[in-house]
Amino acid sequence: MIVTLTANPSLDRLVPLAGPLERGAVLRSAAAVDQPGGKGVNVARVVAAGGRTAVAVLPGHPDDPLLLALRELHLVHRAVPIAAHSRVNLTLAEPDGTTTKVNAPGAPLDAGARAGLAEALRREAAGARWVALSGSLPPGVDDDWYGRLVAQLRSTGARVAVDTSGAALLATAGPDAPSSSTALPDLLKPNAEELAELTGLAAPGRGGAAGAELEADPVAAAEAASTLVERGVETVLVTLGGAGALLVTADGAWHAVHEPVTPVSTVGAGDSTLAGYLLAELDGAAEAERLAVAVAHGTAAVQLPGSTLPGPEHVQRDRVTTRRL
């Protein structure tokens, strides 16, 4: 079983535009589509679609449309009650596949909600293979919360993956993060820009140029990721956009790339990559195969509109090439 935590869930609203996005103009669209979202929710949905048991832990008002949407999808979830409804994130999709996202900050989590989420997570993690802590932290949550949750989850026996960004990522695995192995995740999934910030190749919040250089040079990216392994992170899964992804462990580094595709939407691609990796790990696959399945899932996601997530019918593993660096 895989358990996910989404501290900052959302209802993702896709608005397909009839023409290019034009600032200041009155635009026409097709009917909007709402889907339950948030990175942990996305991971759980892909895992469940892949035929494995997934439980999504999240905060939610009892009457929240997000929870209704999860029930309609028959996704197993544990919601900790909060007073506010989940945020609504807006995705504007142009006909050529370009997407513009407008993300709201999310509902604050007070001490009671945080304690409830931590307890629900520990309870569900008992007997689980993996726990994925995914996404941004909402207002009221300290940057180091994921690291503290990782330490608390050690007693459950579950392995822990973290996929976040910004200050929360740096507090979890950056140079100034606690060096204790109990607080470091077993698996970290940054993109190239986040990897540059984590490893000091770029200042926090300014990893764009350095990230682009890492995407263009998988060997350099693998060398950067290996410094995280030296700090104590067992596995680093780095997404490189159109250049595929990397997997780096103490045993080596692998690079995988999918045959070229025409992107439709990048929403959920990273979450699908992580879910693909976890599915392959549950199947007992070796490192190279885990990476290949991860890339196949991420690439499947970018070929689907808006926040639509891939199922097995969308994944083309045979179009992925993997090499050891």
UniProtKB/TrEMBL annotation:
Q: Does the keyword field hold Nucleotide-binding?
A: yes
Q: Which domain of life is it from?
A: Bacteria
GO function terms (MF aspect): ATP binding; phosphofructokinase activity
What InterPro entries would the database entry show?
A: Carboh/pur_kinase_PfkB_CS, PfkB_dom, Ribo/fructo_kinase, Ribokinase-like, Tagatose/fructose_Pkinase
Keywords carried by this UniProt record: ATP-binding, Kinase, Nucleotide-binding, Transferase
Q: What ranges does the record give for the region Disordered, renumbered to this chain?
A: 305-325
Q: Name one GO cellular component term.
A: cytosol
Q: Which residue range or ranges hold the Carbohydrate kinase PfkB domain?
A: 25-310
Enumerate the Pfam families for this protein.
PfkB
Which residue windows does the record flag with biased composition (Basic and acidic residues)?
314-325
Protein family per UniProt: Belongs to the carbohydrate kinase PfkB family.
NCBIfam families from the entry? 1-PFK
Q: What PANTHER family does the database record attribute to this sequence?
A: 1-PHOSPHOFRUCTOKINASE, 1-PHOSPHOFRUCTOKINASE-RELATED
**Stated name of the protein:** 1-phosphofructokinase family hexose kinase
